[in-house]
Structure formats: C-alpha cells, structure tokens
User: Fold these one by one.
Assistant:
Number 1:
Amino acid sequence: MKSSEKIWNRRFILLFITNLLVLAAFYASIPIIPIYCQEIGITGSKVGIVLTAMSVATILFRPVAGYLLDNFNRYRVYLVFLALFCLSFPAFLAFPLFGALIVIRLYMGAVYSVCGSATMTPAGDVLPAAKITEGISRFAFTVSIGMAVGPYVGLQVQIHMSSAASFWTIFGITVAALVCVSCCRIRYPKVERKKFSIRDTIYGPALPFMFNMMFLMIPYGAVIAYSSIFAQEKGLSAFLPYFYIFLVAGMLVSKLSTQKTIDAGHHRVLVYLSLAVLILTMLSYLFLNSGVHLLAAGFFFGLGYGILQPLFQSFVTGTTPAPQRGVANATYMLSYDVGIGIGSLLMGFMQESIGLPLGFALTAIAYAIGGVVYLCYVDGYYRRLHKS
C-alpha cells in the first residue's frame, strides 16, 4: 500500500482531494437547509428537528463506522458509503415533506458517519510509517478548508440561483469526490473479521483527544449555526459569504506559518497560541457592529482552527496502530458531532435569553476548559503514547 516514501504520493493526493470535496459538500448543506425548509413551508421548531436528526444519527452510527472500517475492506467500504452519500442531496428535492426530510437527514447522518471516518484511515495507510504524523497533520487540513469553503459555496449558489441549484451543485461535488477515490484503487489484505461488540466500537486511547476536542468544537458549532442570524440582526448579511473566505484565509496562513513548528513537535505553544486567538475572537463579538470586524473575526477564527484541527487529528493517527485506525478515527470524530451539536443547542437557548453577542462571548469558556484539559492531561498523555 505504501508505494512511495514521499508524503505527496498519488494516492495520498487523490484522497486529500476526495476528503476536501466530501467535507465541502457536507458543510455546504448546513446553511442552505434552513432556508430551503422555509421555502417549502417548514418553519419554527420543525426546522430544528430536521437539522438535529442528522447529528443524532451520526453520533449513534460512528461506532458502527469504526467496526466496518476495521473488519471489512476499508477501500470498498468507503466507495459504497460515498456513493450512498451522493444520493442524499437529490433526495432533498425529490421529497420536500417534513417527515421525509427527517428520514433523509437520518440516512445522511448514518452514511456520513462512515465517510467522515473513512478517508483519514486509508490516508494513514498509504503514508510511509515514518511520515504518518507529518502527513496526517497536512491531510487533516482538508477538514478546516471543507468547513469554511462549503458554507460559502452553498450560500452563494442559493442566493444567486436557487435552493435546487445549490443541492445539485453539492451533488456534483460528491460525484467528483467519488471519481477521485475510485482512481486510488487501494488494495488491502483479507481481514480477520471479529464479532461486532459495542465495547470494541470505542477506541479507548483516542478518548482523551476526543474529549478535549469536544470542548474546542462547541464555539465552532455556535458560530456556524448562528452566523447568518447574527449577520441579519447586525445588518451585515452582505458580508456573510465573505466571512467564510476570510475563514479559509486564516486557515491557510496558520498552516503555512506553523507547519515547521508542528513537524518539529512543538505542539504545546501552538495549542496555547491558537486558544488565546480564539478566546479574544469570541469575546470581540460583544462589540461587533461592522463588516470589517465580521471579516476579521472570520480570519482569526480560521487562524485558530487551522492549527487545532490538524494538530489533534495527527495526535490520534500518529499514536494508533494501523489495524485500529478506523475505530480510532471514528471515536475521535465524535468530538465534532457532539461539540458542534452542543454549540448549536446552547446558542438556541442563549439567543432568546441573553442575545447572540453575549452568547458567542460566553462560548469562550469552552476554550478555557479545553485548554485546562490539554494542560493537565492531554499534553502529557500524547507524549507518553508517542514515545511508546
């Protein structure tokens, strides 16, 4: 499987592009679904139910995803579930009914739980053993870019064309991802299949990283879910699509400026630096009233996550034996599902009680907690695993 001693071998590049496209498609759907629901007459709490259905399915199915990836041919599993994921987006247009959309979102959550875990696993498999931590740190950057580019694309197509056009655009992106991964043709030896057990679907050594990252994703969930409403309240809706462009710019700057430090193993200073930037960014929402400030917030938000997301993913993949990487990644990715879900839910309550500016500022508490968890346990835990 490891056909080259270089990080950027052909298969790694194809998987990098695939994951970027899959994540961009998934995150593009987040801001367009509420608008689409309103267009077809679904409003109020029903919109929340449609949105929440996927998170519930993803969290419940993540452990099964890990089992499938470690007990079946990983490449074939990814191909099948990516093809199933492609079908989600035309289904929104084919079945514009409240009950049907809930079912579609449940289906989408189940298949995405496999897709979201699957690409990281073969990406680690095609890397030389000595380059896994370094390579996955670069590969995990697809998560950051996808989270930023996706909403921008979804909003732009929906605003300038229609919701139908946006869903078809996302469908095209997923088909392009399927073509890319089909060109990889990764061969795996036969796997000795184990009996399914709930206990075996959680990879214990990845839990500290998952728990730590869960706190760090709470503010992210709040911002992604409620930025459009916040922009409307402040009269800054025209700047919102460009918020995501500045988010990507921040991620690119952080990646280009910190990669050598990550490769050298100086993780601690990067974690604290990114947390300081993110805390100040969230506190600045208390007095955010201009488009320039909104774009600056997007840039610094990207700067922080452009460091944290690849870094923590490299912690997991770099300390996990190859046969357990599927379940390890599935366990770790629960941090995104749970953290984003908590952030969205909390902001829903705080919007009505204290308002979005103060609500965004208060989510900075989650960064402080995450920093304490990292300082008191996760940093030393990673170093112990890395040496063993």
Note: Residues 202 and 331 are 6 Å apart (CA to CA).
Number 2:
Amino acid sequence: MSATPDAKPLKGLFIRTHGCQMNVYDSERIRDVLKPLGYAPVDSPEGADLVVINTCHIREKATEKVYSELGRLKQMKLASGGKMTIAVAGCVAQAEGAEIIRRQPAVDLVLGPQAYHKLPEMIARASRAVGDRLETEFETVEKFDALPKTRDPDGPTAFVSVQEGCDKFCTFCVVPYTRGAEISRNVDDIVSEVRDLASKGVREITLLGQNVNAFHGPAPRLGGGEDWTLGQLVRHLARIGGIERIRYTTSHPRDMDAGLIAAHGDTLAMMPFLHLPVQSGSDRILKAMNRGHTAGEYRDIIARVRAARPDIAIASDFIVGFPGETDADFEATLQLVRDIGYAIAYSFKYSARPGTPAAGMALHVPEDVKDQRLQTLQALLRDQQTAFNQSQIGRTLPVLVTGKGRNEGQMHGRSPYLQAVHFDGTGAELNQFVDLKIVGASLNSLTGELVRAREPAQ
C-alpha cells in the first residue's frame, strides 16, 4: 500500500548504550521520546539521521573511549554532508559535557541522564542553529513527569525505572555527581506503566534504580498519603494480571529493610535472585569506602534473606586494590566470598575517578598487585558460579522464552536465577513460559530439555 500524501519518511535513529541497566532503560525511553518526531531505530550508525551515544562514567578510560567513538562518527557525519546529528547522553555527558563540545565540534547535542526528555526541543534548537547545545541540569522529577506514559516493549521482559540518584557518596563512585540525589517516582505512575506493559505482553519486569531499595515513592491514590517502600511496591505490582516475575537492581545493604526481605519469602512473583553489592570483605576498607556497613552486617543481611527465601541466589560486586588495601584486607574479601557463596559476581580493579574522594587518597596499590588480586578473586568467583550452575542439573526450571538461539531450531530464555538457558525449541514459542529439565551447565549458561510449554497465568 502506498504512503498517504501527508506521510513523512521515517528518520533513522541509532543508539549505542554503554554501562548499566539504567542506561539501557534510558536508551529505551530516548527511543520513546523521539518516536513522535518520526525517528525509527536502525541497526548501524552509517546513514542514520541521529546517533545517540549513551555513556557510562564508572569504569577507567570511559571518557577516552567516548572520544574514540566520536572520532569515527565524525567521519560518518562528513560523509553524510553534515546531515547526521550526533548526541552524547548519559553520565560522561553529565560529568564532562563542556569538554566534549570543546574537544569534538562534530557533536551537536550533549545531555545528562536527567535531561533526555528535552531531546526533541534540543533537536529543534539545533535545526534552527539557535539555543544551547548542552543540557546537564538535574531535574529528575521533571523528567519522570515529561516522559511518554506508554511504551513499546521489545519482548516479554522490560525495565521499569522507579528510583534515581544516590545519597550514599561512596568515596570511589561518581554516581552522586552524575545522577544527583536520591528521588523516587510516584507509585501511581509506576503502576500505570506496569499495567500498560502487561497489556502488551510483558511478563517479567525489573525495577531499576541506582539504589533501588532506597525507594520511598509517594502513593497519593493507593497509599493514603504515605510513601511506599520497595517491599510494598513489589507486593502491589505482583497483583497486576500478567506480571509473573519481578526483579530489582541495584540494591544497597543499608537499605535492605525487614519488609523487603519478607517480600522475598511471601511474594510468589519475586524471583529468587538478589544482587547486593558489598565491594570488600574488610571492615577497614569498607569504612574508607564510606559504605556505611560492616562485613558482619552484610553477612547478617544475607542470612536473613536466605531464611526468608532458602533457594535464593546471591550476586554481588567487588573492587580490589582500593587505596590502602593490604594483603590482610584482600584475604578478608576472599573469606567473605567463601562464607557467602555467590551464584554470580562482578569484580574490578579500583580505578580513580576524577573528583571522587578516593582519587586523592594515599597508598594507592600498584597495578601489578591489583592484577594479581583480581585474578585470584575471579578464579574463586568462577568456581562458585560454575558450581551453582552445575547444581541445577537434574532440576526442572520454569523458563521465560525471550529469543531464538544461534543454531537452527534452538531457543533461549532466562531461569528464575537469571541464567541464560538454551534448548531445542520444538513445541515452544517466543514470549512463552516453558518447563525445562536442565541437562547441562557451563560457566555462563545452562542447557535444557523441554518438559512442557505453558501459557502464563492470567
């Protein structure tokens, strides 16, 4: 069918996302914000009308990687005759926006993580060659209010942002400076968004926040004027028809309250998986990091969570080589890992982030020492992850089918423990729940055999 005379050609939108799940969610909402302007996603930056680089500032050399990518985009922009618009979004944009514009004039727009709802206005300004190219102010409430109320999910799983920012000020972390203070969304808006997603076939949601379990969202219609905690929110979202699975990330030990722990045990939709970063097993280093908890308090939290939900899998984050870390401090981290037993964990060498208190601390650990400690820790974590995956062999697990595998007829999905599971998809469909008998396991995935396919409960 031919286009109507008034139809406008779609404009190509390419978004490259670096970093955490919050950035993935932000990129999805950037796509939603730009859809009414006629932008449609394309698979590569070549020929795109608008390229958005959504950046992360957590890891070392993140900024230089951005400049390297921008150099390649500059050449594409020149080849397009200047028709390509380049935007830099996210945490590097927030931290170094003016420097990005100075160093790479090919960049048209720079916007922080709280400003992407202003992207249509910024594009209009740029097209008229007037107004500012830089928008990095913190206006989280305005952003939440300005976002489109409905979304177009890509499949049966979706991220839902419920909280942003951080008030913890860990000495190694840039998030409080790039994302701003902790703020929570209105409960009614979250419920409305999740209901809309469920009506479009979403069966699993992951609630997002820099400190998601610090959530204290106003609930004017549902809560009688009182703020809700994350535990209250989860219990309510679990009652929405079609939502079978609920996860949340990333949490902080200081915000694991009794109500949230109890929800792990009494809310069927809560998946048996908790990502609770600890960073170090040494009380001395935890104090230097300004984490606000001890290793003993962390162990107690895990014990209470496991008492509420005995089958829960625990994940965490670790930093090795923090300034002043001794061999004894590192051994305390190894001992905590042995004591807890992790299904999966993420570990990194400490890298100084400009402007953070830790960057100015004395007694920085030599790189070769950090390298050796990281190798030792990762070997232990790999052994634990492999052992956890192998412990699933022989079990029958419910798996939500999310895509097709690499091989002909193969499909894949996620277990309740967030593991990737591959299986012969004969008799199964995308977006469906299936029961799989686990017959194989590796470090990063499981292999299953179809026992039965079933439709999600309505």
Note: DSSP finds 13 helices and 21 strands in the chain.
Number 3:
Amino acid sequence: MSLRIVRLTNFVTPSSGGLRTALDELGRGYLAAGHEPVLVMPGEDDSDRITPQGRVITLPGPVLPGTGGYRALADRRRLRRLLEELDPDRLEVSDRTTLRWTGEWARRARVPAVMVSHETADGVLRTWGMPSGLAARAADRLNRRSAWAYTRIVCTTEWAEREFVRIGARNVVRAPLGVDLRRFGPGRRSAALRARYAPPGADVLLLLCSRLSVEKRPGTALEALAELRARGVRAALMVAGDGPLRAGLERRARGLPVRFLGHVPDREQLAALQASADLCLAPGPAETFGLSALEALASGTPVVASATSALPEVIGDAGAAAQDTPAAFADAVTDVLARPEERRRAAARARAELFGWDRAVAAFLTAHDAPVHPARTPGPEVPA
C-alpha cells in the first residue's frame, strides 16, 4: 500500500547540515519503498519541484533574526490550506516548537502524525541560557502537549527519549538516523589534502564540522586547540561550516593554526576532509544524534564529543566523551590519539557500520505503520 507522507520542517538553509541530510535520505528511502514523500519547507520564494527525495515544496518564510539565515513556515493559514490540498495519509514534523500546532490539525483531520525529536527541549533551552530547573519544567510542559497532539514521537537516541519518559509519555518510539557508508569511507583519506590544511610542523589535524551557532558551542573547539598547544601538542584545526558566530570565532582564533573553510557544499570534498583528519570534535552539548560525527566515524576518524549530549551513545568506544571544558576536551583528544592509529580508525568505521540508512528508513516507516518494502506487482503465472 502506497502512502502519501507529507513532511514539514523549519530551520533549514542551503548550507544546513544534519537535518537537511536526514530529510533527503529519508525521502529517498520512502520513495524507494513505494511511498509518495512530500517535503514542505520554508524558502525565499514559492517553488514546487520533483527531486530524488520526492516532491519538495517551498513556501516563503521570514528569516529569523540572529540565526544565520534560518527561515520558518510562519503563515499558518496558507500551510493549513496546503495540507488540506495535499490530503496526506501520514504527517511527519521535524520542528518541535513553531509547527507543533500541526499535530492538532492532524488529529482533527484523522491523519496519523509523527513528531521527530531532533533535539531535546530542555537541552536547547539550557544552551540558550535558561537555568536547568526552569528549562526542565518548561520542556515538560511543551513535551506533554506534543505527546498529546501527535500519534507518535520519534526519538533518534535513548538520550533524547529520556525527557519523554520523564513525563510518562507512552507513544514514544526509537528510530536512529544513518550514514552513507559508500560516500564516507576510510579510502578517501588523502595525504595531499592533509598536507594542504595542516601547517608545517603540525602533527595532529583536528576537524570541527558544524554549523557555527550558539547551540553547537564551536568556541569549545578553539579553546581545546589552545589548551593542546599550551601542553606542547602540535595540533591544528580545520573548521568546516558557517553560521552567525563565524566572525567572532575568526577573531578569537587569531594566533592559532585554524583554517575556516566555510560551508562545504560538495559532499565528496567533505568526505575527504573527514577521512583526512586525525580526529573530529563535536562540542555541542544538546546534540541528539550528530550526523557529521557519524560521517567522521564512517570515514575512519574517531570523535571526541560533549558528554552532556547523545553522542557518547552513538560513538561508543570509537572515540571519547568529554565534559564541556577546554581541558577535558584536550584530555580526551590526547587519550584517543594515544591509541594505535590503525586500531582507532578501524574501530571508528566498525561503529559507523551499525548505522546504515536502510535501517533508519525501515525504523521511520515502522513508526508510521507504513510498509517498509516496495509493493510487488504480481508477474505472469508460470505453468507448473
């Protein structure tokens, strides 16, 4: 049975990373399984096109100040009309705040709806400066309303699921994301590329692959680099990504061996960068999955991640977790690099191989109560 799965999202830009990748891969997977995915997202103009991930519709949405270009689907009346025209069999929403009202629309329209928890509510609130206790109480109120409005809440990790368990929600399911194991691989490691970005005398090449925004805590990577160099470690850092904090980070990096590469749109080039680094840093304390970290593992590059995020659950023993201080990150980097290179790179790849996109697509379709495999058209009968 083919289902029209309408997917709504906010907070994506042409240079977005993990969320845009997840939407693309899931759409391709839904299409391959015989369904009809339709993605609705904000943009500068109206558009409606057929893509490898299915139909993609953009509606004009305002740029949110201070976000580095994020837009939102702000015209509820128009979005409601579009949903009625699309007449979805399933609704999937990748925004826990401004689009939460669509769960109530789906209930009235008798459309099974799924909200995808790409981040924890209390983690985001704490990242933006709200005290922990207040953030937890506000998140609980928000999550109770979400759990009531949607048929299911999909969490990508057990870490992300905890805040729904805390409020006693019974409609939460787990569905991990994935990684392209063909595109991201150890074979892309390039001595020439490494030499291009590692200054003379640098023995360790670190990589931060992240949007440069407050919730990602990119400054921790600069501070960890400074700490390592103060300890005599000849390390350098590549920063692949852009965002509202870039100018300030460039000022803070003066005097340190840091290369700001900006947004890297070429996925092949990004895969080569991740394979050519010695170690990837993922300092975001509110990450619930971390696709760029998983891509690094698939490339054979270990990861040091914030211990307060979900990434320790994802990376396992293919890296290390660190408390959110420069000294702790420097300690973790030193510990990981002390492991034999061949062993640590093999462990990173082996960990990533547990997270193929085929498994992720199957888990998401199961959350939708949708057939996972394409329907087969019966062929002609063969005489006995």
Note: Residues 186-352 form a domain with the Rossmann fold fold (CATH 3.40.50.2000).
Number 4:
Amino acid sequence: MFRIVSTRIAQALPVMLIVAILTFFLMHMLPGDPAVIIAGDQAGPEAIEAIRSSLGLDKPLLEQLWTWLRHLAQGNFGESLILNQPVLSAVRERLPVTLSLAAVAFAITLPIGIGLGIVAAYWRNSWLDSAVMGFALLGVSVPNFWIATLSVILFSVNLGWLPSAGYVPLEDGFGAWLAALIQPAVVLALFQIGFLARMTRSEMLEILDQDYVRTARAKGVSEYLTVAKHAFRNTLVSVVTVGGYILSLLIGGSVVVEQVFALPGIGRLLVQAIMARDYPTVQGTMLLLGFAFVLVNVVIDLIYTFLDPRVRYD
C-alpha cells in the first residue's frame, strides 16, 4: 500500500509543477496591476512603483517564477496581497466551509445518482427510464447559477424556509449548519446527480445483459439479489471512479455557488483574489486544489484493491 501511495504521489509531482507554472503565467497575462489596486485610485506613479518594488513585481517574470517555486519547495506559499496574511492561513480559515459544502453535496449526489441510474436501467425503455434520463439531462444542462438564483427566490424570499446566504459553523449546532448548507449543496449536486445517473444506467445495462445475470435468474435468485449482488457489485469500480471525480469537482467547482450564497469558502476566496490580481493567493489556492484532486485519486486507487481483487498495481 505504501508503494502504491508513494508511486502515485511521485507521478503527480510533474503534474503539480505544470499546474503551478501554468497558473503563474495565466495570472500574469490578465490585465490589471495589483500594485494599482493596493495603492488606490488617488496614488501617484511613485507610490505605485514603490509597491511594485516591495512586492517584487518589477523583476522579470522568470525570476519571479523561480522565486515562487523556490519558496514553494520550502513550504512557503507566500503572503496574500489583499488579506495581509499567509496564503495557507487564508485557505485554512475557509477550508471547513468548502469541505462542508462538498460533503453535504456528495452525500446527496451518491445515493440519488446511483439509485436513479439503477431504476432507469432496470426499467429500460419505459416511461420511468425516460423520466429519469430527462431529469438527468436537465441537471447537466441547466446552469447552476440560474438554479441557485431561482432557489433563493423561492425557498428563501417567498417561502422563508431556508437562509439565503451565510454560513454557520458545525460547532454552533448541526441543525443551523445543515440549514445554511442544504440549499447550496442541492444546487451544487444537481449536475453531478445527472452525470452519475447516466453513467450508472450505462454500466448497469451492460451488466444486466451478461450471461451470469441470466443464469442467476434462471436459478430462481430473487430480483433484489440479482440486481444488488450480481449486477451492481460489478459496476462498483466504475462508480467509485466517477464518485472520486465528482468529489474532486465538488471541492474545486463550488466557485459560483459560494458566490451566490455568500459562503466564505475557498471558491469565493479564489474569485476575490482573481478580481484583485492577488497573485500569491490565486497561485497557492490553485496548487492546493490540484493537490486535493491528486489525493482523491490516490484514495480511489486504494479502494480499487478492496472492491475488486482482480485490480492489482505492479
């Protein structure tokens, strides 16, 4: 197991380096100067140039890149230009919000997406199959910012059932924590539910046509055991793969939802940093999100060996 983890992390290091370099150059290609934003509209050229010099922005790009990579190798992600605090500290403060949102959305996505996919596959070509696939198509097609806006208008403004914005820490009460997250989590989960349902249906259709499933039915095995034990178990590797991919998307793809619901998470921090041209925060946050994606994939590789003994890593 240690060899698997170490190998996967070693393979991910070049990817992380490429992500770091691309993020650095893409941020510097954006129009705007962080020194101007920090100095304010009334600042003169001398004040702006002094800020640029203090931040090291007057140096050549390659020299700035080398300095940043050298600091990264020492575990230093730099100082935020707009928050006046280390990037790691800013991310650490907002990480519980994003992880809580991703966890609730994942808990909604997994059972509903898998369940809808199984139902659609079992009753293939029926009105139920069409309804499930229509819902899945709607979920992957409608923009989540539009659904989020309608959800706030309906459930927060008109009905008053749920708060429209803000976050309540878990230590302040589970009910208040869940009430603050359930609406953005459902909005965030809709796309993933549709994606997971379509994938599960496709895998289940292929498995249900296999000879061993027909043999189980011929032997008189109940439909529940046939579908749950013989069919669904053989789709677990694909489901886990997609599940890990979905979890990564939920962690890194909550930018729009956090903005609409004013959740102080990593996604909102990233948007604010991009708008302010806060280079260290954007670069550090993107690198940490990339590391989270790699970590999720390593965990998936380990789960494979438990779900399917045929899966081995040489």
Note: The mean pLDDT is 80.
